[in-house]
Amino acid sequence: MRQEYTLRAKMRSGIDGAATGLAILSTVLVVAPLVAIFVYLVYKGASSINLDFFIKVPKPVGESGGGMANAILGSGILLGIGSVIGVPMGIAGGVYLAEFGRGTKLANAIRFTADVLNGVPSIVMGIAAYSLVVIPMHHFSAFSGGVALGIMMIPTVCRTTEEMLLMVPNAVREAALALGVPNWLSVLAITVRTASPGIITGCMLAFARVAGETAPLIFTAFGNAFWSTNLNREIAALPLQIYVYAISPYDEWHRLAWAGALVLIVLIVLAVSLVRYVTSRGVLKGAS
Amino acid sequence: MTRIRFQQSLEDLKEQLLVMAGLAEQSIQRAIEAYRVRDLSICDLVTRSENAINRLEREIDQAALDLLAMEQPMAGDLRFILAVIKINADLERVGDSAKAISDRVRHMEQLGAVELPVDIPKMATLAAAMVRKSLQSFIEADPEMARSVLAMDDAVDTMNKAAYKALTKVMEEQSHLAAQALNALMISRALERVADHATNISEDVIFWVQGADVRHYKSVTGGRDPNAKG
Amino acid sequence: MGVGIEVTNLNAWYGTNHTLQDINLHIPANQATALIGPSGCGKSTFVRCLNRMHETNPIARVTGSVRIGDIDIYADAKPVEIRRRVGMVFQRPNPFPTMSIYDNVAAGLKLNGYRNRHALDEIVERSLKNSALWDEVKDDLKKVSGASLSGGQQQRLCIARALAVDPEVLLMDEPASALDPVSTSKIEDLIFQLKSQYTIVIVTHNMQQAARVAEKTGFFLNGRMVEFDSTHKIFTNPTDKRTEDYITGRFG
User: What CATH number is attached to the domain comprising C48?
Assistant: First the structure.
C-alpha cells in the first residue's frame, strides 16, 4: 500500500515537473519573437540614432542626414487629439455600461457596437474619418487623424473601464450610498476612484495600440515633410513616416525607417511607464 | 431536531436528579419507619445512604455547571437547569433531615419509650406525602400538582406549632421526661423542615415550567399567589 | 440624541418574493434593539428598509410607513436625506480602499460639500474616539489606507465613518460576525457607550450578543415578527413557542 502511494507520488511530481517545464517553454516561445524583434530593431536602428534624428526634419531625396523630429511631434499631437477624444468618451461609456445602464437594452447595444468597432480594420477607420472630416473640410488635417485615432481608442477604453468598474465590490458602493451620498457622486468619487488604476491601464492599452497605427493616418493626417504644428494642415506621424521610408528605394531612408521603428517602440514604453509612475505616486500605503 | 447531544444531556441530568430523589425519599421513609418501630438497624441504613446522597449532590451540581458553561442554555432549558440545581440542594437537605430524625430515634431508644402528647406519625406521613407529590410534579412537569403541595405546608406548620406548645409544657411540668420531649421536639422540627424543602421543590418546578417566581409569596404579596394562572 | 422609530404595516418585496409581512413595532430611542432570527427570515431586509437601502435593488418594493422621529421616511423625505440621519454599518467591514483613514472617516462629510478643514479635523478625531479607534491610528491618519487595518479595526473605522455625519439612528447588520471574540467584545462595549447618544438597531444571529447588548429584542421568522419584548423576557421566558424553539436551538 505504501509502495503504491510512493509510486503515485513520484508520478505526480514527475507530471508536475513536466507541466512546469511546458509552461516555461510556452512562455519562452511567446516572448522570444518579441525579444527577437526588439533586438533586431536595436541592431538595425541603433546606429542611425543620433541627436539629429530628434531635432531635424527629413532632408530631400538624395541628401543624407536629417531626422524625424516632425514625425515625433506629429505623432505626439495626433495621439494627444486622439486621447482627448477617445479617453473621455470611452470612460463615460464604460461608466454608463457598468453603473447606470446595467441590464438595459441600450447598454447591450452600446456594448455590442463597441465590440464590433474593435474588430473593424484600421484602414476602414481611416476611410470613415476621411468621409466624416476630410471631405467636409476639403483637405487633410492633423485634426482628422486625431479623430481617426480617437475613435479607435474608444472601444478599448470603454470595455476596460466597464470591466474594472464591475470589479469594484458592491460593498464599496453600498458604503457610499449608506452615507447619504447621491448615486452619481458615489459613482464618480468612490467607484471610479477605486477602479482608477485599472481604468488608467485601459487607457494605456488603447494608447499603445493606436500609437503604432499607420493605415488610418494615410487618408487623414496624410503626412508632412516639414515641421508643422497646424492642426488644420497635414502632419507627419512616426508610423506613417516609417512606412513611407521603408517602401522607398533609398537606403538612406531605410536607415531612418529602422531608427524610427526603434524610437517608436521606446517612446511608447516610456510614455506608459511615465503614466504608471505618476499615478502610483498618489497611492497610499496598503491601498488595494 | 437539532442539538441532540444537548437534549440527551438534559435527559441524563434529569435521570441523575431522579436517582437522588429516590435516595432522599427512601431515607425519609426509613427514618419515619425507624421511629414507628424503633428499629435501630433501619437507622443504620439511613446513616449509610447519607454518603451516597452527598456524592450525588456533588455530581449533579458539576453536571449542571458544565451544561451552563458549554451549552449556553436559554429560556426553558436555562430554567430547567437552574431548577435542577436548587432541587438538588433541597433533596440533600431532606437527606440530612432524615439522618437527624434517625439520630434522634437512636437516642430515644436509649432513654426508653414513653407516651407523649404529639402525633409524630401523622406529621411524618404528611411530610413524606409532600415530598412524594413535589417529586411527582417534577417528573410530570405539572405546575398545578406543585401548587397543591404549597397548600399542604400550612397543615404541617400548624402541627409543628402545636407540638412545640405541648412538648414545652411537658418539659416544664414533667421534667423527668424532658430528654424524651426534647427529642420529640427535634423530630417535629426536622419534619417541618422536610415539608419546607418539599415546598421549595414545588416552587422550583413552577419556576421551571411557567417561568414564574412564586417564592415567599406570602410575605411579598400578602398571601395571594401573583402568578397563579386562572 | 437618538430618536424613536415607529414601524406600521411594513411590507417589502423583492420582485414577487414577499420578504416582509405586516411588520409593526416601536423601536425606543437611545436604546439598543436586537433583531434575531434564522437565515432568510427578513431581519436584514427590515433594517435596510429603515434607511431606504432596500430600494437600491431595482426589483425592490415597500409599502407601509416608517416614522423616524417625526418624519415618515417614505412619504416625507428623499432617500439621500434619510441616509444622512440613519447610519449603517455592514456585516463585512467596507472601508473605501483607496482612501486614508482620515479621508474614510471624513468621506460622508466631504462628499456632501463640507470643506472647513479645522472642523473636519475635530469631527474625525471625535468620531474615531467614539469608536474606540483613535489611540490605535492617531499617528497614521493620513498615511495609511483604510484597507490596511485589521478586520476589527476596519469595522471600527466603518463605525467612525458612520458616526461622523452625526446620525440619529445607527443600524448595524451583524457587525461582529466577521470578527474574532476580542474585537467583538470591543464592538459590544462600544454599542453600550453609543446608546446614550444614538438609537441603535442591531441585527445579529448571535443570541448571546443580543442578550448582552440590547434592551429589547425582536424575533423574526419567515418575514414576520413573531415576538418583540424585553431582552430579559425573550431569553428567560418567551411567550411564543417558536421563539423558544429558536433560541434553545431546537430548530434551524
Answer: 3.40.50.300
Cα A123 from Cα A127, distance rounded (Å): 6
Residues of C with CB under 8 A from a CB of A: 51, 53, 56, 80-85, 87-88, 90, 92, 94-100, 107-108, 111-112, 143-145, 147-148, 158, 161-162, 165
Task: Report CB contact under 8 Å: A177, C83.
Answer: yes
CB distance C4 to C29 below 8 Å: yes
- Contact status of C246 with chain B (Cβ, < 8 Å): no
- Identify the residue among C230, C248, C250 best suited for mutation to test binding to B, counting B beta carbons within 10 A and taking the highest: C248
| Domain annotation covers residue C150 | no
Q: Estimate to the nearest angstrom the gap between the alpha carbon of C71 and the chain centroid.
A: 19
Q: What is the mean pLDDT of chain A?
A: 90
Q: Please enumerate in sequence order all residues whose Cβ is within 8 A of that of B86, keeping only pairs 6 or more positions apart, or say none.
A: B200, B204
Q: Do B72 and C208 touch (CB under 8 A)?
A: yes
* CATH 1.20.58.220 corresponds to the domain B4-221: yes
> Chain B to chain C, count of Cβ pairs less than 8 Å apart?
36
Q: Please, where are the H alpha helices in A46-141?
A: 51-55, 69-95, 105-119, 122-129, 135-137
Pairwise CA distance, residues C153 & C186, whole Å? 10
Look at residue C31 in the predicted model and tell me its pLDDT: 94
CB nearest to C53's CB, from A178, A186, A189: A178
Q: Does the pLDDT of residue C1 top 90, yes or no?
A: no
Residue of C nearest to B210 (CA): C237
Give chains near C: 3+ CB pairs under 8 A. Answer: A, B
CA C51 to chain centre: 10
Asked if the model's pLDDT at residue B226 lies above 60, the reply is: no
Is A in contact with B (3 or more beta carbon pairs below 8 Å)? no
| Cα dist from C74 to B88, C26, C145, whole Å | 57, 17, 36
Rounded CA separation B150/A13 (Å): 79
Chain B residues inside the 8 Å CB shell of C38:
none
pLDDT per residue as tens digits for the range A134-160: 999 999 999 999 999 999 999 999 999
Provide the 3-class DSSP secondary structure of residue A232: coil
Question: Do B75 and C250 make contact, defined as CB atoms within 8 angstroms?
Answer: no
Give the helix/strand (H/E) hosting B181.
Answer: helix B178-210
What is residue A5's predicted lDDT score, i.e. its pLDDT? 81
Residue from C47, C88, C94, C99 to probe the interface with A (highest A Cβ count within 10 Å):
C94
Which cell numbers hold the place of A248?
522607398
From CA C107, how far away is CA A210, in angstroms rounded? Answer: 38
What does CATH list as the number for A70-281?
A: 1.10.3720.10
Nearest Cα to B135, choosing from B13, B17, B12? B17
Domain total in chain C:
1
- Cα B8 from chain centroid? 27
Write down how long chain B is.
230
CB of A185 less than 8 A from some CB of C: yes
Task: State whether A178 and C162 contact (CB < 8 Å).
Answer: yes
**Residue C57 resides in a domain:** yes
Q: Is residue C152 part of a domain?
A: no
Helix, strand, coil abundance in chain C, percent, nearest 5: 40, 25, 35
Q: Cβ separation of A180 and C80 shorter than 8 Å?
A: yes
Question: Residue C115: inside a domain, yes or no?
Answer: no
Residue C184 structural domain: 5-97+167-247
